[in-house]
């Protein structure tokens, strides 16, 4: 038994009550009720627990334990035992907790993959138009036209619907000149459907039952991707082209198209040939006269001021 004051190790077999070096009283703490007992006590004075005087080192420390017993905060407790049933129950509980999380992560990954495929198709259509006179591909064979630009046939398949052709082409963009589309940010180019390869159409091919939480994915002609629970209205499928404007008539054309005998204004000299601008020429317009026999001849209707 170790002396709490000087640290001297007193042989337990001697059953000393006081330290043989410094004379400090030796005490033993009961592991069951924590009662303070004399160092040579064989039983606890409060609960009667056998303090095992034959086990000197354990008796000196106030500890009674076996291979399945541990001391936690000064109290003897049995070691926890893990059986195969407890391990199986822990695994099942872990699976039950992680299954919803895994499904949410899987749905999110499928949504992002589908939107990425549609964006690649819209950008491939723009690249095809740059190489083919600015026109979109033919609606009846748009898959073969765009495959060289996406370089992966899996781009044509939605990750949430493996093994099926996932997308259709807007029939309104059939060989349409993309550069002349004024509403490229609101005209649909590709959308989710259950149709076959090279399918093209409008609301008639809209996927009725969406596999994504917020509706079907669709890509617009400018490359943006959005979601919609219901088929978009007609204005999102039609293409509005820019109206070509006639060039403004030049001064020479205006003079030649004026009626014969009408007064024309002189064209000012730009002065580009001489290198310095010249003063504009003020046009001279003759006032109309009254015909002969209707009064005094050669008399202007609106005589100029003197």
Q: Concise description?
A:
By secondary structure, the protein is an alpha+beta fold.
Overview of the molecule:
23% of the residues lie in helices and 11% in strands. It is α+β, with helices and mostly antiparallel strands. The chain has a five-stranded mixed β-sheet with strand order 7-5-6-8-9, with helices on one face. It has a two-stranded antiparallel ribbon with strand order 1-2. A two-stranded antiparallel ribbon has the order 3-4. A hairpin with a 4-residue loop joins strand 8 (216-220) and strand 9 (225-228). The N and C termini lie far apart (142 Å). Residues 53-65 and 252-301 have low confidence and may be disordered.
Low-confidence stretches: 53-65, 252-301
Radius of gyration: 50 Å
The count of helical stretches stands at 4
General form: rod-shaped
Secondary structure: elements and pairs:
Blueprint: E1 27-29, E2 36-38, H1 56-61, E3 69-72, E4 75-78, H2 84-131, H3 142-150, E5 167-170, E6 188-192, E7 200-201, E8 216-220, E9 225-228, H4 251-257
Parallel strand pairs: 5-7
Antiparallel strand pairs: 1-2, 3-4, 5-6, 6-8, 8-9
Helix pairs in contact: 2-3
């Amino acid at each position: 038994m170790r002396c709490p004051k000087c640290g001297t190790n007193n042989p337990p077999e001697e059953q000393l009550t006081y330290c043989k070096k410094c004379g400090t009283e030796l005490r033993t703490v009961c592991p069951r009720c924590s009662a303070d007992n004399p160092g040579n006590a064989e039983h606890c004075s409060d609960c009667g627990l056998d303090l095992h005087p034959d086990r000197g080192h354990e008796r000196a420390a106030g500890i009674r334990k076996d291979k399945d017993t541990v001391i936690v905060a000064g109290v003897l407790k049995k070691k926890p035992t893990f059986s195969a049933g407890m391990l199986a129950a822990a695994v099942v509980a872990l699976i039950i907790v992680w299954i919803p999380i895994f499904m949410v992560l899987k749905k999110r990954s499928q949504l992002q993959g589908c939107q990425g495929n549609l964006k690649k198709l819209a950008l491939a259509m723009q690249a095809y138009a740059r190489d083919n006179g600015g026109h979109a591909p033919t609606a009846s064979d748009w898959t073969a036209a765009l495959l060289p630009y996406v370089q992966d046939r899996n781009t044509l398949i939605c990750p949430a619907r493996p093994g099926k052709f996932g997308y259709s082409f807007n029939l309104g963009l059939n060989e349409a000149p993309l550069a002349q589309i004024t509403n490229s940010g609101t005209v649909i180019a590709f959308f989710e459907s259950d149709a076959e390869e090279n399918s093209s159409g409008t609301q008639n091919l809209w996927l009725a039952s969406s596999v994504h939480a917020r509706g079907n994915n669709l890509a617009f002609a400018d490359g943006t991707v959005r979601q919609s629970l219901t088929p978009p209205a007609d204005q999102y499928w039609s293409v509005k082209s820019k109206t070509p404007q006639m060039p403004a008539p030049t001064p020479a054309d205006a003079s030649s198209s004026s009626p014969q005998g009408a007064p024309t204004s002189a064209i000012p000299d730009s002065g580009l040939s001489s290198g310095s601008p010249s003063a504009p020429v003020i046009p001279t317009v003759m006032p109309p006269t009254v015909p002969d026999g209707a009064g005094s001849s050669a008399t202007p209707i609106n005589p100029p001021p003197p």
